[in-house]
C-alpha cells in the first residue's frame, strides 16, 4: 500500500486529521488486544484508494530538544512515505518551526501536499494565501474540528500515488520476521538464507525503504519482506519503540505470513503481544518462532511448559503453530520454509459449500444450537465468501441468537475437519432474508 505521512510541528492538529481519515479494520475476533487503532499508524481509504497512514507526531524521540524532534519526524516522513502531508496552522500563520520542517522537506523529491488546518469557516480562507511562501504550491484549507476540506486535500494526495506494480504478478509467498531488537531476527535471516542463492536482494518493494529478499526452496519462491528494523543505520529515531512497532506493522501489512519471533531467554513482552495482535487482526497467517532455544537448560517438560505459557499469553493465536529454533545451532530451521508454505496454503484455502455444510450439520447434530428465551437458533447453511483470510458466512434465523461460544464451537469443528492451522478464520453470522 502507498504510505501517507503527516508531518508538522506540535499542535497543528495532526492527530485529529489522522483519526478522521483512519479507516476501521475488520476485527477478526472481538476479544483481541486493542491494537487496531494505533494512534500513529493506520489504514485510510479515499474514493476506493487504500493507503497506510503515519502520524509522525506520535513518534516521540526521547531526550531530544524540540528542533531535533521535529527534524527527526520530518526525516521519518521522507524515509517512509510515498506522499507527505505537511500540516500548518491557519490561525497562527507561518512560524519558525514550520520553516524548519519546510527546509527538511525541500530535500526530498517526494510529493508534499500542504494542508492548512483550523480554517474553520469561509472568512478564514483569505489568510491561507500567505502559505504559498512555503514553496509547496497550493495550500489546502482544512478543518479537523469540522471535517471540512478533507476531500479536496485527499484528492490531491491520491493524485500523487504513483502507479506501482505492487508485486501483483508475483506468486511468491511473502513473509516477515517480526520481533523486538535482539531476539535474533538478523541471525535467523542469515541462517535461513545460508548458502541459498538469493534471487534478488535489496530490491525496493512498494516503498523505497523496504528490503525484499527472494529465494527458492523445493521449487517454491519466497519473498522475505523486511522492513522491521533489521538495518541499523543509526538515525536518531531508529531505536525508538514506536518507530520499530510502526515498521513491524508495515512489514505485516506487506506479508502473507508473519513470523512472530520470541527470545526463549526473555519470554513474551507486551510489545510482542501488540504486534502479534496486529497480525491477527489483519487476518495474516501467523507462526510463532521461539529462537535461542539452545540457551535453555532443558528437561523433558521444558518445551511443553514454554508452549503452555505462549498459549496463555496469546489466547487468540491458538491456531498458530509454534516452532522452537536456534539461529546459532540451526536447530529445526530447515522446517521453517515448509511451515510457511503450509500456513500460506491454509490461509488461502477454499472449502466447498457442500463439504462445509456437511461439517456444520454434523456439528449441530452433536451439539444442538442454543436457545435464548425459548427461541432457538436455526442454522440454514454456511458458505466461505473469501480467502486470505478465510471468511465464512453462516446464515441463520436470527443472528442475535448466535452465542460466541457456539460460534467458537463451530470454528473448532471446522478446524478439526480442514487444516486451517496458522490462519485466523472469521465467521460472520447473517440473518437469512
Ligand atoms: P535482531 O536485533 O533481532 O536482528 O537480533 P540479532 O540477530 O542481531 O541477534 C542478537 C544477538 O543474539 C546476537 O548476539 C546473536 O549472535 C544472538 N543470537 C541470535 N540467535 C541466537 C540463537 O539462536 N542462540 C543464541 N545463543 N544466540 C543467538
Give a written overview of the molecule.
- Belongs to the TRAFAC class TrmE-Era-EngA-EngB-Septin-like GTPase superfamily. EngA (Der) GTPase family.
- GTP 2 binds at residues 179-186, 226-230, 291-294.
- It holds the Pfam family MMR_HSR1.
- GTP 1 binds at residues 8-15, 55-59, 117-120.
- This is GTPase Der.
- By secondary structure, this protein is of the alpha/beta class.
- The chain folds into three domains: 3-159, P-loop containing nucleotide triphosphate hydrolases (Rossmann fold); 173-347, 3-Layer(aba) Sandwich (Rossmann fold), CATH 3.40.50.300; 353-431, GMP Synthetase, Chain A, domain 3, CATH 3.30.300.20.
- Helix content is 30%, strand content 22%.
- It is built from eleven helices and 18 strands.
- The chain has helices at 14-21, 66-80, 96-105, 150-159, 185-193, 241-253, 270-281, 302-313, 335-347, 353-366, 404-417; strands at residues 3-7, 41-46, 49-55, 83-89, 112-117, 139-141, 173-178, 203-204, 211-217, 220-226, 257-263, 285-291, 322-324, 371-372, 375-376, 379-386, 391-396, 426-431.
- The strands form four sheets. It has a seven-stranded mixed sheet with strand order 8-9-10-7-11-12-13, with helices on both faces. Strands 2-3-1-4-5-6 form a six-stranded mixed sheet, with helices on both faces.
- It is globular and about 70 Å long.
- Residues 25-37 and 200-209 have low confidence and may be disordered.
- The structure holds guanosine-5'-diphosphate.
- Guanosine-5'-diphosphate (GDP) binds at residues 179, 181-187, 230, 291-292, 294-295, 326-328.
